[in-house]
Amino acid sequence: MSIFDTAETASSSATLTVDLAALVANWRALGARAGTEASAVVKANAYGIGIEPAATALAAAGCTSFFVAHLSEGIRVRAVAPDATVYVLNGLLPGTCGSYAQHGLSPVLGSHEELLEWAAFRQTGANVRPAALHVDTAMNRLGLWKGEGLTLARERSGVISAADIGLVMSHFASSEDEADPANARQIEAFAEVTAALPGIPASLKNSSGHFLKGCPSYQLTRPGYALYGGNPTPGLPNPMQPVIGLTAPILQLREVEGGTQVGYNGRWTAKGRRKLATICLGYADGYPRNASGTGTSTGGSALVGGVLCPFVGTVSMDLIIVDVSDAPIAALQRGELVTLIGGRLDLETVGTSAKTIGYEILTSLGRRYARRYIGL
Ligand SMILES: *Cc1c(COP(=O)(O)O)cnc(C)c1O
Predict the structure, then answer these.
(1) 210 CB within 6 A, ligand 1
(2) Which pLDDT does position 12 carry in this prediction?
(3) Is 222 helix (H, G, I), strand (E, B) or coil?
(4) Is 284:337 a contact under the CB 8 Å cutoff?
(5) Which residue among 29, 69, 70, 95 is least packed, with the fewest CB closer than 10 Å?
(6) Binding site membership of 65 for ligand 1 (Cβ less than 6 Å)
(7) Best substitution site from 89, 238, 243 to test ligand 1's pocket, by max atoms within 8 Å of Cβ?
């Protein structure tokens, strides 16, 4: 039992199992691959697995830098990792400098205005940790545009030194696609930025960046998805260890005749006599409704006694119906567990079957599961 386990028992709901030893092993493997320090990106409740258990395990393993998206997430990391550097990627909303100071958090500054506000706050004598500077080299999302970054960097005693920048970073737009020429352009643009800011540690690699040829590691990397077992090299074997598993119990079994319609609006019709199982999990648990199996579209599937069985009908709020006709008889009992994520059903497979990506499956993991933290 871990202190982070939820009270709900496995018999009353689906169960999410999180292997914290695998999480730590993935973090170590990425750092070793980069040959430099790896931070941990734990935004969005550590991609759904739980920010407190994830940050606690990683800090105990020696991780000293964390990235989150929101100030509120930074405060949660600070509570379990009192000494770590905690960067807040979404930067400085007006008037929030005081909260950064109070919790010892570091904003990732991404505009001239944010730099000025932070520098002015520092000049009041506030006790703050160094901030990071985000330079946008492709995304047009957050960050100073490269030209502006270079101009500010060249003003020796300007706002960048007044803001006390401890890290300069940029973010890849398509690092999971090795063949995209945008990667080389971003690597080159970021090299220009770092050359203009000598002596300031830099960070470029996200998960997939660790596997891009010709990408320098700089002083810090920022893996997220791969820490949680996501495949940073889509289309190639997954180099990471799986971290999460999701199971749900069978609530009811039935046999239906050919021509029987199943689920809301009768979106699936049995072509012959079929065995169906209704399982305890639905879109309210974060399993996308887009994984519905209809006559025209195959959706998600479950492993039942090791056999892949398709969803039939629409995914409903609390329930999914699975065609278990091919599953071994021994696995077909009320209360038996089926696997929704794990083994052959990895995050990428589940994402594709729901017409999305593994990242969205992971970060949508529901609040209603019983959660078991194992491995540490
Ligand atoms: C989310 C995020 C990361 C982590 O990306 P992954 O692809 O999950 O490894 C790194 N840097 C920034 C700026 C991010 O927003």
Answers:
(1) no
(2) 66
(3) coil
(4) no
(5) 95
(6) no
(7) 89
Spans in the chain with pLDDT lower than 70: 7-12, 156
Give CATH 3.20.20.10 domain extents, the chain.
20-228
Integer Cα distance of 176 and 232 in angstroms? 6
Which of 47, 100, 264, 275 is the catalytic position? 264
231 within ligand 1 shell (Cβ under 6 A) = no
CATH 2.40.37.10 domain span(s) along the chain:
244-345
pLDDT in tens, 6-64: 755 545 689 999 999 999 999 999 999 999 999 999 999 999 999 999 999 999 999 99
Q: Decide yes or no: CATH 3.40.50.1360 for domain 244-345.
A: no
**pTM score above 0.85:** yes
The superfamily in CATH containing domain 20-228 is Alanine racemase (3.20.20.10)
Q: Which residue has the tokens 């990397």?
A: 221
